[in-house]
Amino acid sequence: MAPLTTTTSKAASGSGSDGQEIVLGMSAAFSGPSRGLGIELYRGASAYFEHVNSSGGVHGRKIALKTYDDGYQPDPSVQNTMTLMLEDRVFALFGYVGTPTVTRVLPMLKKFQDQTVYLFFPFTGAQAQREPPYADFAFNLRASYRQETAGLVDNFVSIGRKRIAVFYQADAYGRSGWEGVRRALKEHGEEIVAEATYRRGQRFEGSMGRQVEILKAANPDAVICIGAYAACAAFLRDAVDLGLQVPVANLSFVGSESLLQLITESRPDRDRYTDLLVNSQVVPSYEDARIPAIREYRQLMLRHNPDPPQDLLEQAYSPLPQSFVSLEGFLDAKMMVKILDVLGEDPDRTNLESAVFSIQNYDLGIGELVSFAPDRRQGLQTVYYTIVDAGRFVPLDDWKRRFA
Amino acid sequence: MSLQKLFQKTLFGIFFLFGMIGVATSVLCIRTVDSYLSREYEANSKGIAKTIADASVDIILNRDLSVLQSLIDQFVEIQGISYIYITDETGEFLAHTFVPGVPEQIRTGYTGSNETVERRLPGIGDFVEVSSPILAGISGNVHVGMDMGLLSLRIQGAIGQQVYLITSIFVGGVFAAIWLMGLAAKPIAQLLSYAVRLAGGRADGADRSEKLLARDDEVGHLARLFLYFSEAKDPNRVERATAAGPNPDMSGALGG
Q: What is the rounded distance in angstroms from the CA atom of residue B17 to the CA atom of residue B26?
């Protein structure tokens, strides 16, 4: 088995690929309260890349993932991108984590557009990389936050829960989700009834009492959270403790398993905290072994069990056996390999865009065919909804029965 | 009466004069610095608000609000800016930097005015809020809250430096005045001592007061005059008195 290369091997050609390997650059949160997102996305992608490398690579070239930690902070992500583009000269950027980070990186891609460095499959559903002027520099696989929030709002409204409040991170990510909720409610002739914010980097131990009180005063029917797992778990804990007994929804970015771990550990009455929880996802449930890509994911995660990038870890981390985030990383990697395969034996960055657009109705193995085109730079469109049952996230089939 | 007493009034006069100069300069300085820094602070804030307003037009009309949020998040990192919020033409809050939410005072009291206002937000602090219209106000307004606490600190710092300088000059001036008074008082004290000795018949022009008698100033004249009057009672000693100093001019000594 050939493990995934994560060292600083630079491409001899200066274009991120040489005779032996293709180097992809990744800047993500590997430290701080959101590190679980970066680490699990990396692990999922690594499982597939290791599988491909152990099978001989793509047209004989191994795939290497060059990683940097940005701690989910914009300035380090910009610095890391400079390094990846100008010093490491990676073939493409891959698997960036977060809206505030990606939003700040996009202008750099435009600035260096003559180098044709594209950003593939960032772990964010924000609009910034889906709309002009930066849409031409990124390719998305996952559904957008607008699609996730619209789905949540539509389902809540359909069961009579029209008074929707929003709890969100005070930055570009939170605002992106907030706007999604606002737009979706407008379609139903409704408005956000209350909103409360928190600062990025909030830890689970911190209190969200004030935020809960602000929302509770508006007597909402449901709360949609746009945040990361530590803050959202703290909000859910305080909401239940302070008697805000309404469904609490989270977006896919939250990191569902990490949230569940925080909210349930050391609590005998864990159901009390998860009964009203519903999370939207942009990949199907990894529990559903009927789906071919899920079987492949579970098998490869078990076989390779990728380590987090050890040189970036500040504290010990216990990897999750499976998670929605690592599944997304896995599917991102699978899609990337397909693109590199289409590029042919002599990969050239200038041909990347046309290679992507040549992909039509590609079956990733999750039941939704992927196509790209100049006006379609997002591969998947489906949003899934999950609830907690017996300590695991399972698909939500009936909103009315669960929350009406 | 001691010599210190002789100069006490002069010394106090100098202290008073220095003190008045110091206080007047400090007051003027405080007013100037306060006014200058406040105006500069407000002008900078307005500049920032206008920059955000200009950059917001395209974003509000064409792009996602997350981009607008990203923009104000970068500006709020500037020291002194405490909060930024952007409203549309209807007064709806499109983006802001408040945690855990827009303060009640701002949310309920919003008028859409672009006047500079001073705000006291309970539990948060005191702020100067400047505003700038987006697209002449038809697309909304940008509001920037500047921390008055930081402004006060800056003003206090600048004033502190000025007052420190003035106080140093004052203290130095006082010590210089005392030293100069001491210089002036020393020969008078010697003259007094000499006069006392003459009166007691324990001194004459040949004793250790020769330097005093040799001085070519008012003290020397007085010393020679005292010696003259003292020895006038003894005709034999008059010659010594006239010979003790260089060209003793009695009219000069008497005229001061």
A: 14
What amino acid occupies position A380? L
Total domain count for chain A?
2
Q: How far is B119 from chain A (nearest CA, A)?
A: 21
Inter-chain contact A131–B73, Cβ cutoff 8 Å?
A: no
Is residue A169 included in any domain, yes or no? yes
- Measured in angstroms, the CA of A159 and the nearest CA of chain B are apart by 28
- Burial (CB < 10 A; 0-12, 13-18, 19+), residue B30, is middle
- Calculate Rg over the CA atoms of chain B: 38
The whole-angstrom distance between A41's CA and the closest CA on chain B is 23
Residue A10: inside a domain: no
A294 and A223 in a common domain: no
Instruction: Tell if the CB–CB gap between B99 and A103 is shorter than 8 Å.
Output: no
Instruction: Show the tokens assigned to B256.
Output: 């001061």
For residue B65, the chain A residues in CB contact (below 8 A) are 175-176, 178-179
pLDDT string in tens for chain A (404-residue length) = 445 655 433 333 446 666 689 999 999 999 999 999 999 999 999 999 999 999 999 999 999 999 999 999 999 999 999 999 999 999 999 999 999 999 999 999 999 999 999 999 999 999 999 999 999 999 999 999 999 999 999 999 999 999 999 999 999 999 999 999 999 999 999 999 999 999 999 999 999 999 999 999 999 999 999 999 999 999 999 999 999 999 999 999 999 999 999 999 878 888 999 999 999 999 999 999 999 999 999 999 999 999 999 889 888 999 999 999 999 999 999 999 999 999 999 999 999 999 999 999 999 999 999 999 999 999 999 999 999 999 999 999 999 999 98
Does residue A123 sit in the same domain as residue A263? no
Nearest to A171 among B62, B69, B101 (CB): B69
- CA–CA distance, A62 with B9 (Å, rounded to integer): 96
Q: Which of B64, B73, B99 sits opposite A179 (nearest CB)?
A: B64
Residue A104, amino acid: R
Distance from CA of A176 to the nearest CA of B (A): 5
- Alpha carbon separation from A286 to A279, A299, A321, B195 (Å, rounded): 14, 11, 11, 115
Contacts of B63 in chain A (CB under 8 A): 127-128, 131
CB contact under 8 A, B68 and A214: no
Please indicate, yes or no, whether residues A158 and A259 belong to a single structural domain of this protein: yes
Rounded to the nearest 5 degrees, what angle is found at the Cα of A172, between the Cα atoms of B131 and A258? 145
CB A69 within 8 A of CB A38: yes
Are residues A207 and A342 part of one domain? Answer: no
Q: Are A197 and B95 an interchain contact pair (Cβ–Cβ within 8 Å)?
A: no
Residues in chain A closer than 8 A to B99 (CB atoms): 170, 197-199
Same domain, A388 and A358: no
Structural domain contains residue A15: no
Domain span at residue A176 reads 145-281+384-403
A267 and A181, same structural domain?
yes
Q: Does any CB of chain A come closer than 8 Å to the CB of residue B211?
A: no
